[in-house]
Amino acid sequence: MRMRRWSVLSIALMMLVTMSLSACSKNENESASTGGEGQEKVNIVFWNSGFATIDENNKAKKKEDFYISQAVARYEKAHPNVKIDVQDVPSGDELFAKFQTASIAKNGPDLTVLWSGSYMLRFKQFLEPMDSYFSGEERSRIVGWSATTEDFTADGKAYGVPFGTDGTFLLAYNKKIFADAGIDPIAQRPKNFQEFVAMLEKVKTKDITPLGLFKDSFLHVPDYWIAQTVDIPGLDSLVKGTTNFSDPKLVNVMKGWRELFEKNLVIADDSVRQLFIQEQLGMTVGANADILNFSKEMGDKVGFMKIPDFSEDVKIHDGGPGGVGAAFVVTNYSEHKKETADFVKFLMSKEEQINKIKSGEARITVVNDVDVNEYVSDPLVKTMQDMANEPSTIFWPDNVYPAELTSEMMSLQSLVSSGKMTAEEFMKKIDQKRDSLLKNK
Predict the structure, then answer these.
(1) Which run of H or E residues covers position 387?
(2) All domains of the chain in start order, with CATH
(3) HSE-up of 139 (CA within 13 Å, CB side)?
(4) Model-wide pTM > 0.70
(5) What does the DSSP 8-state code read for residue 422?
């Protein structure tokens, strides 16, 4: 009996010791994960594909001199329990593959920047909806939410936060070349595709290539004409298969695309920026960074205009492709979703958007409570900001299409421009690809 009682006492004593050690261990772990004032330490991993950390024109510029490094320092100072681990990653396909692999294993970042629209929404299963983190007032001061919602509407369920705007894609023209051809493209703005062609043909008579496009400018010109013909809800109908790309109105757009090349009115080459600056082209395309560079290099020699409407009965007039091309996304497997969303809100705050503009790393913004004119002296920047906020600026159509559909378009469109495939054949193939994607969904 004594032995049995001793055993019971021993067991009880051992249990007390074990509980005591467990409590000590627990306290030690809590101490390791709390800040100096008892706050839990939070480490947020940010895969940065959107903010500059290298200046190709100034290799001496240190990483801490860039906006994002300074913003992180300000945030960490105000939130001493939070550490933002910024890891630079490439954007585009390389990031998509890396993000998907890591997210399947649930060891990806807390935060990253993805291309908006369908590029982002393909990862919806890994993304935290942002609606509960932003009040109506906070959401209303940021434009471009439709680029982040699953139904591409401004008040839809948002899986990201607008990162920045590409502005409106414009046409830049050489004033002297156009004047020599007897054209004022602003006063005599083409009202439809036929008038646009007539204008380019006049420039061609001066023995100069009228229009220079990038190799991927299918996304900037005919794809925009398709979008303005059907409107954004119409693009959604095309994607869902309730309407077809082989609609005669849309086939006419591709016929127009072919006509530009058939009449030798255009070249498609990624060197067109330099050719335009060298005054070897009458006109070229460009986003806000290109427009500012053309203005800097050419001064008063360059003018700007929107891409002409394809026809007078399009649903969206006097616009252009552009808008929010990327978005912040928070992963739904993050252990610090709220803290990560708070960091995004900090970056989108009025103060930080002003700091970003002052840094010179951004010219225009996606918030409507910052007047860029107060911080940038170039009046062209104000024009670009105003255009970016116009409802006629159409969110990039390729960001609405499934990525596989965009790839199909890009792989086949050159066959149309070169005359190896008819416009009708092209559009039927796009319908077939869309139907195949829907069937396998």
Answers:
(1) helix 379-388
(2) 42-166+323-389 (3.40.190.10), 170-319+402-439 (3.40.190.10)
(3) 17
(4) yes
(5) -
